[in-house]
Write a structure and sequence with these properties.
Layout: H1 4-12, H2 18-28, H3 37-48, H4 59-92, H5 100-107, H6 128-141, E1 156-159, E2 169-172, H7 186-193
Antiparallel strand pairs: 1-2
Helix pairs in contact: 1-2, 3-4, 4-6
Length: 204
């Protein structure tokens, strides 16, 4: 099975037809999809100006989408290296108790659902690398906050039966992410639960 780098080379390969290059980009999302596969695809297509169902897209637009995905992946790989180094230091110092950051990292290992979204067509509009940096900084800072770690919005709604993990949680009404419960204040969570809603259905 081809890895991310090999698939990225296929996206950039001018000898392949656009359909094959599009398929390679979709397969890249099986290795790294910060919002989940469908939401990340929708995000990349939106920012690159590609129709999500276009089977023969402009190769230049495909490469623009890949560039953003690769930059975001570089941000995530650098974070994972720093995280591993920190855990080695903590274990050396006898610190074994996992933190909220450790729990979050364990759930996001491999680079999928790092910033889960309410639905495939509801996600932040900012570039993926910027969103990942914001989330990583928020998680590493620890403590609790009343605003969204990605966009700074303060309007949350508690959603039930979401399509991906977590199956329920506080959704930012400004950018659509499911914010980690561990970093929101109890007041923000109570306010979100006060406007609890059921299952959300959205197009891919």
């Amino acid at each position: 099975m081809a890895g991310f780098r090999a698939l990225a080379q296929q996206v950039r390969n001018p000898r392949l037809v656009a359909t094959q290059r599009r398929t390679a980009l979709r397969k890249c999302l099986e290795r790294f999809a910060p919002y989940g596969h469908r939401a990340t695809w929708h995000h990349l297509c939106t920012r690159a100006g590609i129709a999500t169902q276009d089977r023969d897209p402009d190769p230049e637009r495909l490469m623009a989408a890949l560039d953003e995905l690769e930059e975001a992946r570089a941000v995530w790989l650098a974070y994972e290296e720093e995280f591993a180094a920190r855990r080695r230091r903590e274990k050396h110092d006898g610190i074994r108790q996992p933190s909220a950051l450790d729990d979050w990292h364990r759930r996001t290992w491999g680079g999928c659902d790092i910033v889960p979204c309410e639905a495939p067509d509801r996600h932040p509009s900012a570039p993926l690398p910027m969103v990942l940096r914001s989330m990583i900084e928020a998680m590493e800072a620890g403590g609790c906050r009343s605003d969204c770690p990605v966009c700074g919005g303060t309007r949350f709604v508690w959603r039930e039966e979401l399509e991906r993990y977590p199956m329920a949680g506080p959704v930012c009404q400004d950018c659509g992410i499911v914010a980690p419960v561990s970093i929101l204040t109890s007041e923000a969570l109570r306010a979100a639960r006060g406007v609890r809603t059921g299952r959300v259905y959205a197009a891919a």
